[in-house]
Amino acid sequence: MSDAQLPEDINGDESRDRTATSIINKIVAGSLRLRFLILFFTVLFICGVLYSFPLLPFDAYPALSPPRFATGTPWDAHTAV
């Protein structure tokens, strides 16, 4: 069993990096490299929220009554089924 090789060694690719390079690791590494760009977009997003928040309609007391509607029937004295 001492001659067992890892799959990378069997394929002859011994120079391959054995650390995990998931997409999350790439996103975090890119965010750390471009931290000023991330900070700029964060401030831009917060400014957009602060600008649009007062423009949103706000209903403090919603209508608590059930919706009402009228049904019409083609004949007199008949109700809708």
Provide key terms for this protein:
single chain; 41% helix; elongated; 81 residues; mainly alpha; 3 helices
Characterize the structure shown:
The chain is mainly alpha-helical. It has one domain (1-81). Helix content is 41%, strand content 0%. It has 3 helices and no strands. The longest helix is centred in the middle third of the chain and has 18 residues, at 35-52. The model has no long low-confidence stretch (mean pLDDT 75).
Query: What order do the helices and strands follow?
Result: HHH
Count of helix runs: 3
Work out the count of structural domains: 1
Distance between the termini: 81 Å
Mean of all residue-level pLDDT scores: 75
Rg of Cα set:
32 Å
Number of strands: 0
Largest sheet: none
Q: What proportion strand?
A: under 5%
The helix content is: 40-55%
Shape: elongated
Name the poorly predicted regions.
none
Secondary structure class reads mainly alpha
Structure described in brief:
It contains three helices and no strands.
Helices and strands in order:
Layout: H1 7-10, H2 23-33, H3 35-52
